Amino acid sequence: ICHCRHPESINMKNLYFAIYSIFCLTLPTTADADSTSVGAGVATGTWAVDGSPYHVTGSLYIPRGDSLVITSGVEIIFDEPGEILVDGVLRAFGTTDAPILIHSGLSEDWGPIHLRGDAVTSLEYVHMTGVYASWDGGGGMLVEGQARATLVQCKSIFSARPIRVDDNGALLARNSLFADSRALFEVAGGALVLLN
User: Fold this and answer.
1) Distance between alpha carbon 85 and the CA centroid of its chain, in Å?
2) Is 154 helix (H, G, I), strand (E, B) or coil?
3) 119: Cβ–Cβ under 8 A, 6 or more apart, which residues?
4) E strands in 84-153
5) How far apart are CA 148 and CA 118, in angstroms?
6) Is the dihedral of CA 101, 105, 110, 116 positive or negative?
7) What is the block-wise mean pLDDT of the chain (196 residues), using blocks of 10 residues?
8) Distances (CA, A) of 62 to 69, 85, 114, 168, 191
9) Residues 6+ away with beta carbon under 8 Å from 136
């Protein structure tokens, strides 16, 4: 029952706005209290699920002699374009029930995971989407120099090119999925081994 003097004076636009505002206030925010903001630069140590999601604003660098360990269930969101440049060690160990998710957020793209020198990377149950690099050749993962990478039960979806191996780099992918890519793998030296 409307106790207004003139019920037709109720502005429907204002009513819809009020209902929408109340609805929006009850939704969880994407940047909740447990999220972690990570600026461009050196990334080392351990990224655990209690700090997830990690909102990244630029390229990350793991120096030679240092490591970054990412634990199961972590979500990494690139809010600005950037790559993960590895001269040291990157280890990301998800599980079937708690994979590690890496994807773009506010940015349209991110990537690649770029291994150089004698870098070592092991990824298990890592799901990567929206990987695109604007540099020549593109790629979700670029392995060059003497770098070594192992992927187990990983997924790379919507990539410019899932994997590129240059120089004497080597990559072993076991039971991994590469789908909806714009190009095939590229090997310009080094070794690429795909196993089921």
Assistant:
1) 13
2) coil
3) 62, 64, 86, 87, 88, 89, 90, 145, 147, 148
4) 84-86, 89-93, 100-104, 113-115, 120-124, 126-129, 141-143, 148-152
5) 7
6) negative
7) 44 42 37 81 97 95 98 95 94 97 82 92 93 60 92 83 85 88 77 90
8) 11, 6, 10, 20, 23
9) none
Q: Which residue has the tokens 């969101």?
A: 77
Express the helix, strand and coil content of the chain in percent, nearest 5 each: 10, 45, 45
Q: How far apart are CA 101 and CA 77, in angstroms?
A: 8
The angle at the Cα of 60, spanning 37 to 114, to the nearest 5 degrees, equals: 145
Cα separation, 141 vs 132, in Å, equals 10
